[in-house]
Amino acid sequence: MCDVIVIGSGMGSLTAAAMLALKGLQPLILEQNWIPGGCTTSYPRKGYTFEAGATTLVGLDDHMPLRYLLDATGIALPSRKLDLPMQVHLTNGQTLSRFQDLDRWIAECDQKFGVNSSAFWQEAYTMSKFVWQASTRYLHFPPERTTDYLRLLKKMRLNDVANIPAAWTTTEEVLIRHHLNTPDFRAFIDQQLLITAQNTAEQVNWLFGAAALCYTNYGNYYIDGGLRNLVNPLVEYITSQGGNLQLREPVVQIEDLGDQYQVTTKNTTYHSKYLVSGIPLNNLLDHCKFPVRYAPKVMKSEQLYSAFQMGIAYKPHNQLESLHHQIHITNALSGAGSSSIFLSLSHPEDTTRSPDPDTSVASISTHIPNPKHNIISTEEWEQQLLNELARRDIIRPENIVYQHSSGPRSWHKWTGRAHGFVGGYPQYKHIKPWQMVGARLDLKRAYHCGDTAYPGQGIPGATLSGIIAATKLTNDWL
Q: Signal peptide location in the record (predicted)?
């Protein structure tokens, strides 16, 4: 019998497994795919290495979840700090540079939008600092037991209480208060929130909104070889502590036998004293043969997003200032859930992702709402995205060496996620942070992490969920 079975090998699962290995447990990780990492990984295709999605790496600053994980385990993560985290290409032809330095970013914002945004961004940045500092201090959040409340109260600081009302305030309301709810600025804010909180300003509370909007004001990083080199060191650490990773082991059934959990895959049956699920809650309910207390909180396809993703190998004709670009488009793609596309490029000094040192690799993504029922025209979307990249003089069609694309069906096949949805559960104003899905599945010895648990999507969010799941399991039983 295993100490603990961890279902899935996404960032939440790997974090929980690493933190439990640190406590002396030997996790068995069951992954349905042939490579670990879930949505946080890279994959080979035609000799090139593509990211599973266009994304940024943030979280290595003090108080952030990824930094907490690396410091706790001693894992070294070779990375390059980006000079310019992102550029945003607006529909009017202007390009915004999202500088990390706050004063420099405020000046850029005011110049391009013709607004006075200093007070807004100062407030947002201050709130974001609180959110990050609180995230790794309150590791029993959201509280699910009396002991959680007691532990939270012990760590409570008086100035933290002053920020609680922000959970009832939407980002839209803050924009209105600062007289910034103008069409152009609001469009910019909404598209930035879609790639960080999976929703727009009228739905995203200010706690999450401030952190989401200011992530470019913290360190953003790049890992040579792609995000698989974020995943692999975690796997190596877990196995070095006696843990094990089983690939191509899709879970089909989970049972509570009283003193242990029985997990049945397509290949065999496993038993463990503890269970941590890192797969989406939607999938988990299909597998569980015992009551899951968060079943009423499962979101339907109509509330979720998938992504249309393109991978491109190309010959760059110029040197761009940033590796990450959000491009706002005038004519939205038919059936798309946003008016922008997000582009991530390989670093010009990273020669490990292409057999040809003169060829770069790009990943492009945009939102697809209601993925269970939304049928898209792949060829049409490909052409529109390529036209937009050419119009912005970022990638020229004649320089493309190889391209491929994927939609909800591909995501479902690749990750096994219900409906092929990605990005976790979007933020909704009627769901306060303490009402989000917590870590305890059955108030026994089964736990949950990943981007459908608090706090949600992205590498920082999934990492924090894994830390919380491991913390609660440890405090409950070890």
A: none
